[in-house]
């Protein structure tokens, strides 16, 4: 009897199981059909709103018009036809506009002119889309991306051989690994930054923006990030042609650039710290012209770090395989120029020296005048796009303001009124309009996040604001998961990039003739 009951129960359970499975199959089939139809609750709400002519007032006064004047961003499409751009040939995978290596070799080598931007004439422009490398995949999320880059995304192995003993980069299977080393810090950027932090207030928000000249694969900037310091790194497109691409694939701010004959595309008094780690820049040449250009972009009270030759040449000249007389003269010129710029050496240890730019402008100006220093005559030290670099010294502040602008520590400075605005140096922008701009962009970004739910999830690391204005879009997005390249077009009605830097963010001037390559940024917005 017991066996019969057990068999009967088994048949009952089997029938129930079949019924449940059949029911679930029907349910998911119907669910899939409903989803495929594209008509759900959100669609029904939209239909009802359309029928009732309801006004869309989720966020009032949401304005998507461009910020700058001069006609930029205004397109008359009344007689235009939509044009689809085809992909370029695969041979253009590494093509970087204005940085074509074959064309560059036709320009003078003096003062690195051939490594600067040289754009092609109108008739030679490409009108196609630069293709990604074969097998390109989504980069790893930060912070894993700091240490690993998929090989397919930047398939160049030369640096793994050339810089093997310096721990720049290693090839492991289908990825590159970045141990964090550099020419001057083969044991790792972290230890090197710890040494700098024993002299420079890196960890308390005083230093927020940094400039790394000749950055390599930007490990210095990569390891500064966890200390809430954001570095603008640049390096030329040279024999290490993939170094900036590696930096961006790692999720580190970087651009192709060089100290040559043209001023750097950054405003005056932008950076809290500037850095050169064996960057091979001849700092003492041309009457210290390159040091004077760094001085222009260095904020009063800011720091300049020089690691490598000729620092401590008496001990290292044999290892560097350079004549001691040559190194001695090189350091003499650097020390002499630093004194003219009112930079005080605050540390020299091993192969690293640190100078601090004086905050007292009155005393500095008097000393410079007594030394016969030539001051730059340009009325606007931020007007730098394709302007020749000069051997003159940029005055501490504008004639419109006798005070040397000072900024608050980060993150307080992110929403504090920038000194340029507070002192009335940006026409048409007041403290009140600045606060209103922030208010509006917080609303916009809140709306963007609802449209694109993964905007601040870590999926996007490198973001570009193609028309940054006061940087309020980037400020509203502020997060350890991402960074924003704030681009201020050279045709903008107001020069606002200086205020962006005073908020503790980074950016660059550009005329949008061409901008690097299509793989550098994951998310772009024209605001």
Description:
- The chain has 527 residues and is an alpha/beta fold.
- The chain is 31% helix and 13% strand.
- The strands form 3 sheets. It has a 7-stranded mixed sheet with strand order 6-5-4-7-8-10-9, sandwiched between helices.
- Strand 7, helix 9 and strand 8 form a beta-alpha-beta unit.
- The radius of gyration is 28 Å and the shape is globular.
- The N terminus is likely disordered.
- Keywords: Glycoprotein, Golgi apparatus, Membrane, Methyltransferase, Signal-anchor, Transferase, Transmembrane, Transmembrane helix.
What key phrases describe this protein's structure?
527 residues, alpha/beta, 7-stranded mixed sheet, 4-stranded parallel sheet, 13% strand, globular
């Amino acid at each position: 009897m017991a066996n019969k009951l057990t068999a009967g129960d088994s048949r009952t359970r089997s029938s129930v199981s079949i019924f449940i499975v059949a029911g679930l199959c029907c349910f998911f089939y119907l669910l899939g059909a409903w989803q495929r139809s594209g008509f759900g609750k959100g669609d029904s709400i939209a239909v009802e709103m359309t029928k009732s002519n309801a006004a869309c007032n989720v966020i009032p006064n949401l304005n998507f018009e461009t910020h700058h004047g001069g006609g930029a961003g205004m397109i008359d499409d009344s007689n235009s036809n939509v044009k689809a751009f085809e992909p370029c040939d695969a041979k253009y995978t590494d093509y970087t506009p204005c940085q074509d290596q074959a064309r560059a070799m036709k320009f003078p080598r003096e003062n690195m002119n051939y490594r600067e931007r040289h754009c092609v004439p109108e008739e030679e422009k490409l009108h196609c889309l630069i293709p990604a490398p074969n097998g390109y995949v989504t980069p790893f999320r930060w912070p894993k991306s700091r240490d690993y880059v998929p090989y397919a995304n930047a398939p160049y192995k030369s640096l793994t051989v050339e810089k093997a003993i310096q721990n720049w980069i290693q090839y492991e299977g289908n990825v590159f690994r970045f141990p964090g080393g550099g020419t001057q810090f083969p044991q790792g950027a972290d230890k090197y930054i710890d040494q700098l932090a024993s002299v420079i207030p890196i960890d308390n928000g005083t230093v927020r923006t940094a400039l790394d000249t000749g950055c390599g694969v930007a490990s210095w900037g990569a390891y500064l990030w966890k200390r809430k310091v954001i570095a603008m790194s640049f390096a030329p497109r040279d024999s290490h042609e993939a170094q900036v691409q590696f930096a961006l694939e790692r999720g580190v701010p970087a651009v192709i650039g060089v100290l040559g004959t043209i001023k750097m595309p950054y405003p005056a008094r932008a950076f809290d710290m500037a850095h050169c780690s064996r960057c091979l820049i001849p700092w003492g040449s041309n009457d210290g012209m390159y040091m004077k250009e760094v001085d222009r972009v260095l904020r009063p009270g800011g720091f300049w770090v020089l690691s490598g030759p000729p620092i401590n040449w008496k001990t290292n000249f044999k290892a560097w395989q350079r004549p001691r007389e040559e190194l001695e003269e090189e350091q003499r010129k650097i020390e002499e120029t630093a004194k003219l710029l009112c930079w005080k050496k605050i540390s020299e240890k091993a192969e690293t020296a640190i100078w601090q730019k004086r905050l007292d402008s009155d005393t500095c100006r008097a000393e410079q005048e007594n030394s016969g220093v030539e001051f730059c005559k340009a009325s606007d030290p931020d007007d730098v796009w394709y302007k020749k670099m000069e051997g003159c010294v940029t005055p501490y502040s504008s004639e419109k303001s006798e005070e040397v602008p000072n900024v608050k520590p980060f993150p307080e400075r992110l929403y504090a009124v920038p000194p340029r605005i507070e002192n009335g140096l940006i026409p048409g922008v007041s403290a009140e309009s600045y606060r209103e701009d922030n208010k509006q962009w917080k609303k916009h970004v809140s709306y963007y996040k609802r449209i694109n739910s993964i905007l601040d999830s870590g999926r996007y690391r490198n973001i570009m604001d193609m028309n940054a204005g006061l940087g309020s879009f980037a400020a509203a997005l502020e997060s350890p998961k991402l960074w924003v390249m704030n681009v201020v077009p050279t045709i903008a009605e107001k020069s606002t990039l200086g205020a962006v830097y005073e908020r503790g963010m980074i950016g660059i001037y550009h005329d949008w003739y061409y901008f690097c390559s299509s793989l550098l940024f994951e998310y772009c917005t024209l605001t």
